[in-house]
Amino acid sequence: MLHATWRQFEAAPTGFIPSQDKGYLLVNVQLPDSASLERTTKVMRQIEQLAGQAPGVKHTLAIAGQSLIINAKAPNFGTLYVMLEDFHRRSPLGLSADVISRKLQTELDHAVSNGVVHIFGAPPIDGLGTSGGFRLVIEDRDDLGLAALQSASDRVLSEGSKTPGLTDLFTSFRGSTPWFYIDIDRDAAKLKHVSLAEIFGTLQVNFGSLYVNDFNRFGRTWQVNVQADAKYRMTADDLKRLYARSEQGEMVPLAAFAEMRESSGPMMLTRYNLYPSAIVSANPAVGTSSGQALELLERVSKESIAPSMRTEWTELALLQQNVSQTALFAFLLAVVLVFLVLAAQYESWALPLAVILVVPMCLLCSIAGVQWAGLDINIFTQIGFVVLVGLACKNAILIVEFARSRHDRGASRREATLEACQLRLRPILMTSLAFIIGVIPLMLGEGAGAEMRHTLGTAVFYGMLGVTAFGIFLTPVFFYIIEAMADWRRTR
User: Is residue 56 part of a domain?
Assistant: First the structure.
């Protein structure tokens, strides 16, 4: 049973915190490089119309020019919040967040042909990331250049998209997007008594907007931002029409000391651990746990990037990697603590083994039940394992305590064991069945946070079934054999 339990642990899919239906979805939209904001806005309106008509959707909120998932601003980015109906309206129809996400993703893939659309759920932990899924960072540690970093991220996306178990792979890294470069002749600007601060301020005010102040009106606070009208900042020639004020108060044309040319470069440069990096986002496919998805993407990345590059996990995936062995140590400490308490109670090192040996049975049945339900071993099932240690030992103590007492009063081992089984069967079954029936609502519950309750309830439910079904037969055997060994040792 110990061997079977260990093999089940090795074979069971692992996770960290299950994805939760928090009542909203995030849609990330990415158009071709340097697409205009007007073009992005049109696509966002189309997506918003399709999403608003989907069953289970309450309303939407579109933001053009910004990607909240990767925390970047660009005219070809867009983010759409899809707010879902209340749980009690969606649950009878089977419209969970995952179901709505898959249906909406299929519709948007067919409807939107000039952009890439990915749908993500809410982050499992508020404040740790902006969406669900996980993120892998590819670091250029040998300064191979943006082209090599772009090639590496493209290979990871290509191979990852072909890998079963991974879905919704995308990266925002673009190493060669169209640029418009303004080369300022600083010597010429100094001869004309125009400061660099005045030049940059002129460019920002006219093309990038500038915050001035706030004012109160209608019971609200309003910001004042200045910017050139849209028709005066549409083409490259509009830059040549700008004027900067010199130190003498004269207006000097920008074309007198600035040269404009087309160029290319990264849309934005992300640094992770101070290295130029590309972030790859992905989601586990249906039927794949987060632990399995992390292993798949890590294997793909190692096969696709250069030897001098490195990969790092970030956000929730980083925490999952760091605490992967913590739960095992916590469980072992729980077992050791129970053993030490029982050793002090019975004043024996051997007798507590009759109680502790029932633990592998409850874990074996718990893991089998979790796998049969299509779940993974995450932080909530691990909490359930710790709970099962106490519950399994409690049932065994009912038999061992009485049998030990009868044996100490002169009854034979066989007589004490059989009498303990007869007298303790009813309380064991009553307490076990009460607990098993009590966790059924955890397994069948719906609404906010139901995903966490399902995993915890399933682990405890099947674990208690196993310890009740097998513990009442094997615990007397454990006690009889261990007590026989103890008697033999005392006699010798």
Answer: no
